[in-house]
Specification:
Order of helices and strands: HEEEEEEHHHEEEEE
Strand content: 35-45%
Oligomer: single chain
Strand order of the largest sheet: 6-5-4-7-11
Number of helices: 4
Low-confidence stretches: 1-25
Length: about 180
């Protein structure tokens, strides 16, 4: 049966790759699947695989957001989720540091978002979500002025950039008006 699980996982990954849905990292770590709406890790137990509960929801990172203030970058993830009962969970934005710690589901989705009490569950949940996701990247510049963006010199302002039509800005306070 373990061989069947591995074969199925390889088939799903190959199918996702052909559809352009696999991340560029070509993740080859543990196997994660959704069973009855619960996100689980498939672990070998002798010749028989065992499904280990991680969370009573499934989630994907839809978008990775980089906020660049000209000195440092902050990273956030837009996460979509569905509870095991089929109820969509509200889209949330999670700071990359919060995401890495693994405590964000209860903070963002409340008491119904249950993560296994197992000590390794937060790390496995993070890995499972990352491995199953193929997020788009959005970079927002949070300052004005002249800046090199992907080999082009542009002038950043509240409405975007002169010299770059696809440059996004997100300014605070009066600069953002």
């Amino acid at each position: 049966m373990w061989n069947a699980v591995l074969t199925n996982a390889k088939r799903l990954r190959a199918s996702a790759h052909r559809a352009g849905q696999e991340s560029s990292s070509n993740f080859a770590g543990p196997i994660y699947e959704v069973h009855n709406g619960n996100l689980c890790q498939i672990v070998p137990m002798g010749d028989v695989p065992k499904s280990v509960f991680l969370a009573n929801f499934e989630a994907l990172i839809q978008r990775e957001i980089v906020l660049d203030d000209g000195v440092e970058e902050q990273r956030r993830f837009e996460v979509l989720g569905v509870h095991a009962d089929g109820t969509p969970l509200p889209p949330v934005t999670v700071d990359a540091t919060e995401f890495a710690l693994g405590r964000w589901p209860i903070v963002k989705w409340g008491a119904r978002a249950i993560v296994s009490p197992d000590q390794s569950a937060p790390a496995n949940l993070r890995t499972a979500i990352q491995a199953r996701s193929n997020p788009t990247l959005a970079r927002y510049y949070r300052h004005t002025g002249i800046r090199d963006v992907e080999g082009r010199t542009v002038f950043l302002h509240a409405g975007g950039a002169i010299g770059g039509s696809d440059v996004l800005t997100q300014l605070d306070g009066r600069l953002g008006q």
